[in-house]
Automatic annotation (TrEMBL):
<keyword id="KW-0560">Oxidoreductase</keyword>
<dbReference type="GO" id="GO:0050661">
    <property type="term" value="F:NADP binding"/>
</dbReference>
<protein>
    <recommendedName>
        <fullName>4-hydroxy-tetrahydrodipicolinate reductase</fullName>
        <ecNumber>1.17.1.8</ecNumber>
    </recommendedName>
</protein>
<dbReference type="InterPro" id="IPR000846">
    <property type="entry name" value="DapB_N"/>
</dbReference>
<dbReference type="InterPro" id="IPR023940">
    <property type="entry name" value="DHDPR_bac"/>
</dbReference>
<comment type="pathway">
    <text>Amino-acid biosynthesis; L-lysine biosynthesis via DAP pathway; (S)-tetrahydrodipicolinate from L-aspartate: step 4/4.</text>
</comment>
<feature type="binding site">
    <location>
        <begin position="11"/>
        <end position="16"/>
    </location>
    <ligand>
        <name>NAD(+)</name>
    </ligand>
</feature>
<dbReference type="InterPro" id="IPR022664">
    <property type="entry name" value="DapB_N_CS"/>
</dbReference>
<dbReference type="GO" id="GO:0009089">
    <property type="term" value="P:lysine biosynthetic process via diaminopimelate"/>
</dbReference>
<keyword id="KW-0963">Cytoplasm</keyword>
<feature type="domain" description="Dihydrodipicolinate reductase C-terminal">
    <location>
        <begin position="131"/>
        <end position="267"/>
    </location>
</feature>
<keyword id="KW-0520">NAD</keyword>
<dbReference type="Pfam" id="PF01113">
    <property type="entry name" value="DapB_N"/>
</dbReference>
<feature type="binding site">
    <location>
        <position position="37"/>
    </location>
    <ligand>
        <name>NAD(+)</name>
    </ligand>
</feature>
<dbReference type="GO" id="GO:0005829">
    <property type="term" value="C:cytosol"/>
</dbReference>
<feature type="binding site">
    <location>
        <begin position="168"/>
        <end position="169"/>
    </location>
    <ligand>
        <name>(S)-2,3,4,5-tetrahydrodipicolinate</name>
    </ligand>
</feature>
<dbReference type="GO" id="GO:0019877">
    <property type="term" value="P:diaminopimelate biosynthetic process"/>
</dbReference>
Length: 270
């Protein structure tokens, strides 16, 4: 058991953190070797199993990331941009795999992650599921096949606690559509419509974000022209798919050289 790759989970008290813990333990291919929470959190210093409402696990929740990362092979990180940037630097220092599912990162944040990738294996993706990454590929191909007579809209829905919009997955899909058309997403992105907006600009890629209830994640890419519409859709009903993808990414990265990768690399879709 101790020969299995050791994985740390950050933000372990959150819904995704607890799902990652469960997935690692059930995988049979990895072991949980650390659990991190922010300083001052109620779980810090507690046995993780007890904190999660079960039996003792032997893993104590810590707020000392440097100490914990130094003892493991990989860290899975679904937290917040500022925390992720810090974890990237610490993972690079420890020379371990850093799997990033954090969304809402700025170009400056990503540049710092790029710098860390010179020293560590980093896998960063707005979505870790196989289905979504296949949808990204399909979106790129369909966008390349259709001209600007087809308007493109990315429509996403998530639970009411999600703090960023559009979702990281929606931006992945928008980027894929832009690449298919050979344009820059920054030049054609239309993210907000309110009031008298005027007619839609030809060639724009629109985004719509829905927030409500406990929606895990739904994404549609709509190609709409006069007289016809094409809709590509992915619906997630269990966030376990993201946890399984993240664990797969961590195991894929163990023993690999430094670099900044994504799930297309992990899944062999490039």
């Amino acid at each position: 058991m101790t020969d299995l790759p050791g994985i740390v989970v950050t933000g372990v008290s959150g819904r995704m953190g607890q799902m990652l813990v469960k997935t690692i333990r059930e995988s049979g291919r990895a072991r949980l070797c650390g659990a991190l929470e922010r300083p001052g959190h109620d779980w810090v210093g507690q046995d993780l199993g007890r904190a999660m409402g079960g039996a003792e696990s032997g893993v104590i929740v810590s707020d000392d990331a440097l100490e914990v990362l130094a003892t493991c092979d990989a860290v899975i990180d679904f937290t917040a941009p500022a925390a992720t940037v810090e974890f990237a630097a610490l993972a690079a220092q420890a020379r371990i795999v850093h799997v990033i599912g954090t969304t809402g990162m700025t170009e400056e944040d990503i540049a710092k992650v790029d710098a860390a990738a010179h020293h560590a294996t980093i896998v960063r993706a707005g979505n870790m599921s196989l289905g979504v990454n296949l949808l990204v590929q399909l979106t790129r191909k369909v966008a390349a096949a259709l001209d600007e007579d087809f308007d493109i809209e990315v429509i996403e829905a998530h639970h009411n606690q999600k703090v960023d919009a559009p979702s990281g997955t929606a931006l992945m899909l928008g980027q894929a559509a832009a690449e298919g058309r050979g344009v820059s997403l920054e030049d054609v992105s239309d993210r907000g419509r309110d009031g008298i907006t005027g007619a839609r600009k030809r060639g724009d890629i629109g985004f719509t974000a829905i927030r409500g209830g406990d929606i895990v994640g739904e994404h549609d890419v709509l190609f709409a022209a006069a007289g016809e519409r094409i809709v590509l859709r992915h619906m997630a009903t269990d966030r376990a798919i993201f946890a399984r993808g993240a664990v797969k990414a961590a195991l894929w990265g163990v023993g690999r050289g430094p670099g900044h990768f994504d799930m297309m690399d992990v899944l062999g879709l490039k």
